[in-house]
Amino acid sequence: VLNLFSITPDHDLDIMCQGQTLFDITCRGMQGLNAVFEEEKPDLVLVHGDTTTTFAGSLAAYYHQIAIGHVEAGLRTGNKYSPFPEEMNRRLTGVLTDYHFAPTAGSRDNLLGEGVNTENIFVTGNTVIDALIKTVDENYRFTDPLLAGIDYQNRRVILVTTHRRENLGEPMRHVYQALKQIVTEFDDVEVVFPVHKNPLVREVVSQELGGMARVHLIDPLDYQPFANLIARSYLVLTDSGGIQEEAPSLAKPVLVLRDTTERPEAVAAGTVKLIGTERERVYQETRQLLADRSEYERMYNAVNPYGDGKAAQRIVQSILYRYGLCRKQPQYFI
Asked: In this prediction, what percent of the chain has a pLDDT beyond 90?
């Protein structure tokens, strides 16, 4: 992603280690950022999303008494363990944040409900849509021979991603068993599954889907090929968060393998459906989109509520405005 957008980091914390825990990530992240903040002495620290490094960055900035801006603020499920640890990462970050850059009006309302001052909330749209618009290209050519060899015009490609901690083990197994039924029943379907590197995920994937015809198990993709793969897929099955915004922006129906979502706007719009991980439900919901064209088109034609490609511009304008460097108040995304 850094290369794709021509970004050269000034600091590399180099915190990633095989088999690390949430404790390891939090501690290493804070220690690394402590040194960076002491050297750079920033006036504002921007953190993004709901990863453990997001929370670590916010806490480190707070310890240095540096103002914090949270990009993608206000997403909530209301269940601190779903998704885990993302729900509490973003809620704890929100408590520390000075400037909340909420992607939607719904996210803004969540923050208002938690007592955040309306003057510190800026509805911007989501930067993921900015990146997607700049990345997806109908003339893009995959360098991976497997992806390049798929007939996207005449095959219905189901893109699958799973990695949530709460879905490890039997819940994931049930999803994969449902996929086996689908591939067996529909001979024009191909599954492309970039498999997470977590050994616990890979073990169950291999047991249930390994060696199956028309199921392509591949390593995780870089952002550019992944975004273009979404654009050429027929539908998406995922337990991820970001894809719930990316796929609707490309008019792709999404079946979310979770019972809760912090992105209810797409559910309300009709382009995303929560289906959980129970085997029969996953099979029936997926089958319906393959067998019922009207249901597929209902989700396909739903309106994307997440942005117009100008979120980053609004965030910059909001910062300049709040710091007195720009007199004109930004026009927000509603």
From this structure: 83
3-state secondary structure of 225: helix
* Tokens standing for residue 189: 């379907």
Q: Is 165 a residue of the active site?
A: yes
- Per annotation, catalytic residue among 48, 64, 155, 165: 165
Q: Span 40-44, mean pLDDT? A: 98
Q: Cβ neighbours of residue 73 under 8 Å, at least 6 residues apart?
A: 90, 93, 94, 97, 100, 101, 102, 103, 107, 111, 121
Residue 222 CB-density burial (10 A; 0-12 exposed, 13-18 middle, 19+ buried): exposed
Is 298 designated active site? no
* Nearest in space to 129 (alpha carbons), one of 301, 5, 288, 304: 304
Residue 86 falls in the annotated catalytic set? yes
Mean pLDDT of 204-232: 96
**Domains with residue ranges and CATH for the chain:** 22-125+310-322 (3.40.50.2000), 142-300 (3.40.50.2000)
Instruction: Examine the residue annotation and report whether 185 is marked as an active-site residue of this protein.
Output: no
Render pLDDT for 91-113 as a digit per residue (tens, 0 to 9): 999 999 999 999 999 999 999 99
From 28, 70, 76, 86, active-site residue: 86
